[in-house]
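G.,

No rush on this.
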Amino acid sequence: MLPSAAREPTPGRTGNRLLDRLPEEEHARLASGLVTVSLELKQPLIQADAPIREVYFPTTALISSLVVMEDGSEVETGLTGVEGMVGLAVALGVDFGLSKAICQVPGEAWRLPAGALREAVDRSRGVNDLFRRYAAVHLRQTAQLAACNALHPVSERLCQWLLMSHDRVRRDEFPMTHEFMGELLGVRRQTVTVAAGLLQGAGLIMLRRGIVRVIDRCRLEEASCECYGVIRALYARVLP
């Protein structure tokens, strides 16, 4: 992890939508504990079954939640960026990781001691309500991705994943290798290479040396499965 920057968040302008929804009084109380950190590619933030000591509110970084099987294989079950937080279990009264969380796209995030978040949830009904709504959306996202993994072809899932990533990093270009995409989607690297190659050939994306660039957002949405629209609509409804 790179050194923390010495700046304090401004209410309503933190760069993280969940933080910006905190009641003003609670935001002021938490401000002194929030520090901005730079997260690196594949940096682990939370380990399954291990104590959660810090939670993260991404601003430009993108974080994947992963389920790890006994043989070491991993499948992505959630994606978190500017809209949310990493370490949600803490807000729900659980002090250990329910899944693994790693940085998928390097960038910045606000870091907060887990204890400070627990105290805020216990102290403020407004904070409690906010994180309960976010938890509801996050749970539905996890369920939708599980259904997507089981029912939809890799090409549509890849489009959905690229769209969700594009929304959260808020830039057209971000680092990603075929190998890592395969790990996140739970398929072989060769399968991702074929699917990504078709998207590039159709002019939807451009790939170069571990970098993905979104070229045609509208057509990428058309090529995606229904899951992208379902998840996006849910966020707009529950956390407008």
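When you get to it, here's the other one too:
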Amino acid sequence: MRLETLLAGHALRRPDHPAVVCGTQHLGYAALAASIQRVASGLRALGIGPGDRVLVYLPNCPEFVQAVYAMFSLGAIAVPVNTRLTARELEHVFTDARPAAAIYHASGREHVHPGMRLVQRCGAIAVGGTEAREIAFEGLAAASAEALPALALDSDDCLIMYTSGTTGAPKGAILTHANMIVQNVFMHGTEWGIGRDDRHLVLSPLAHRAGVSRLFNALGLGGTLVILGKFDPARTIDTIERERITVTGLVPTAIRMLLPELRQAPARCGTLRRIIVSTEAFPVPLKQALLALLPQAEIHSVFGSTEALVTNLSHAEQFTHPASVGRPIPGVEVRLVDDDGRDVPDGEVGELAVRSGPPGRFATLRAYFNRPEETAAAIRDGWFHTGDLARRDAEGYLYIVDRKKDMIVSGGFNIYSKEVEAVLATHPAVAEAAVIGVPDEIYGEAVAAFVEPSGAAQRNAQALIDHCRSQLAGYKKPKHVFFIDALPRNSTGKVLKTELRALATERLNPA
């Protein structure tokens, strides 16, 4: 089963049902399927075929949907890239993926052009206006549709999505049609009751894993995808009300930004019934504040990464097990292992490993693109080793303790940075904190905290150290506290601890 055949089936059964809405643009399933076939015919005429990689550097827009589904129709592989990436970051993707073509919006031309020298064959396809040596996407979409060749049964790769790269250069995770259909169609339908008449609002970039989930969830189940170009609290509330949105995906940061607007008129979001939350810790008071305004809605949390989908936490479990990321999704097997690959008992911390059949068939990526050694290191005996440290309770609930690479070993004791960060976050003078390990002559490593102050709060390092000492074992408290105006982040908002380590080195060893 493939994503484009699911969409074609909905076009046959519900030709006039709205598939994609973006501002004043409305495409029914039959119209969307026809436009996809035209774009696919145009791409095929340029030489795009099975296995070819095509970079997609587009904002949230209908052309993104048309482009990726056209590639699927040809057996090609889409390489979606977040438009927040800089030209330097984008050039890494060009270098690594070596795409046959690139599709981008004219407004992003200057970011794309440095990498175009690495495009292998078919060149540059621009949306929204062309320059010399560019092909107009609009011309492809207006071309005549031709019959497309049948694809081989083993043509299952559909996406290469680049990891966030918080600990090094981003790697391209190869994801399959099976991955996307099972995770975003079957699982959303069976676990959360989402169906063909739901209306989905996508607020994340479509090139991000969360945005891709909304895309394939909506069009895989035959629902309606409503695209908002850029997140804005007031526009989001307006769109939910106008389009009668029933499902959306949010991160806790976005929820905090929405609350002031929601408090003014919560009834405007009365149609919203499913809120899918991912990527960040979700404090219970924030959940309570949201549900007090939207009592008809249910919150469902998912835990995973670009490479794997692991657990979900149901609406009821948000309050019975608020610190947990949930239990494994049905069909997903989980192990917690030590450094020697041995299972650890319940209650103890181990690295989270996941499998669900052969890699690429359900929960886990098929491989890292063109990186056999890193693939072999991550996927061992069929188990994908996530790099997350976790513990499991007697009921099977999982609790993420830290990233394995972020664990600090001080004086022989393991210190999990997330635990220290969570305590720092409870201090009223702290807006956000990130914790790393730094070299220490006596203990091997010491705890260093980078802190974004809250508003005009006084920058008092000793007060924060004392606060941690009052709630944590003494060896876990920060030895160093560095105040910083803004934590460095990548294009998806994750804190770049590699940059913090370099900054700590500078501050601890001034010239």
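The mean pLDDT is 92. DSSP finds 16 helices and 27 strands in the chain.

Enjoy the weekend,
O.
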